[in-house]
């Protein structure tokens, strides 16, 4: 299935708005700073997923036919909240409450199904197992809902990821798509420096997954990967750029978790509007 | 509500003869008969958990994740989030500590409800060494909010605990202790509710607060003490969390000496839970902690280790005699 140019354009606009929201949240976070880079690498994937793939109804967040999305790399919640705002789950005002005292929008997602957050995540390596549990339940009940789980490449250092990876093909899971945000950087350096995950494609293939390698910022490729039917559990290995969208943050790991100043905010907003 | 007709005297008698692990498998089958929405999730321990018949006859409700406890907890929580009742089981150290953070985040923090059954906790696997013994589970899990911790005194109480856990809103850890020839404490039906201790024997001179298989040792010890005209109250604290605050307060008013008896490290377990209550009530009651004295000892058979740590009826009796109560 192909996506029309017009629809690509729409998702590009959405991605732009998501990045604007990310800037707003990040600026609002102030001195507590936020996970900027690893959120920006997910924007096109999440925007495409929510625009064209995921079944949900903002008016009925507990709708029984909804698909489930799990952000296992929970620190990318800036992008998640920014997107939930664009779809009306939370307001712009809510975004200003990010990491504020008593807020429901913390630095890692806290389960809140009414606003589209299915699980609490943040401690890495846990989301895929949750997704497999949900997927097994759906299969046992003959339900058609789908499960989507986004993990990170740094997250793949966690042994529990591989426990889950081993089990999905074993249980013949056919209703779950994993997305690996392969931005090649983790908290304190590149994957190569910290813990090599060089052959992620082979690793996942050898665990029994069908791996689709795509450019994680190319909306047509993302859409096509989501729509590819596979006989095995599907892993979309998305090659991405950490900090994508702003020249100061792209591939600059200082922006893993950093304070955004007002000057940088203005500069970033201008760069976004110029594009 | 689960149909509890299977909680009858003939069944209690059978279960009491086969030990808690084998009983767990049989009780799970009974629960499945009344709830098709129910799953047992294990980590390659179906035989040890008495689940072979369950596995063979009810494969649709049985999930084996292999030797991967973190994934076990994640999958169980995923199932629970879809509204299933889920029992998980593997050996106690792996059921609790190997996946401790999954228990914290998936069950405690997110409040997904799962009932975990820790097999062969305490000292019963002493010949296998302390990789397989478990004297830390209560202490580790007690600090996680939204979690019940139960250590049944016999197989019948295990059945009651499983049903109560299934009907409770929180997740529950059920700690199985003792060998296959465990004493049967209860021969008749009785009321069981999470967090409410049961006085098995009234006494005047001191109170013995026990949990798990040591309730049986406490009862035997009380009989020995009776022969010496020492009147010992025995209370079954099947639930360690939430702890029965009211009962401890009552005991502190009635007795000068309270002894906690547990097959667990003296740090963090039943004794600590009781002491935390005593620190909040006005009382001059002295508490003595009988348990494993914060050590990994040499290994050995169950009875040998119970004697070593003075947890068997005879050794507890001897220790109490020396107190000159």
Mean pLDDT of chain B: 96
Main interface pair?
Answer: A-B, 29 and 25 residues
Assigned CATH superfamily of the largest domain in chain B = Thiamin diphosphate (ThDP)-binding fold, Pyr/PP domains
What's the number of helices of chain A?
A: 11
Oligomer: heterodimer
Which runs of chain A of at least 5 residues are low in confidence (pLDDT < 50)?
none
Overview of the structural elements:
The complex is a heterodimer of chains A (275) and B (325). Chain A has a single domain, classed as 3-Layer(aba) Sandwich (Rossmann fold), CATH 3.40.50. Chain A is of the alpha/beta class and 275 residues long. Helices cover 41% and strands 12% of the residues of chain A. Chain B has 325 residues and is of the alpha/beta class. Chain B has 2 domains: 9-175, Rossmann fold (3-Layer(aba) Sandwich); 198-322, Rossmann fold (3-Layer(aba) Sandwich). Chain B contains 12 helices and 12 strands. Chain B has a 7-stranded mixed β-sheet, sandwiched between helices. In chain B, strands 7-9-8-11-12 form a 5-stranded mixed β-sheet, with helices on both faces. Chain B is globular. In chain B, 55% of the residues are buried. Chains A and B meet through α6 and α7 of A and α3 and α5 of B.
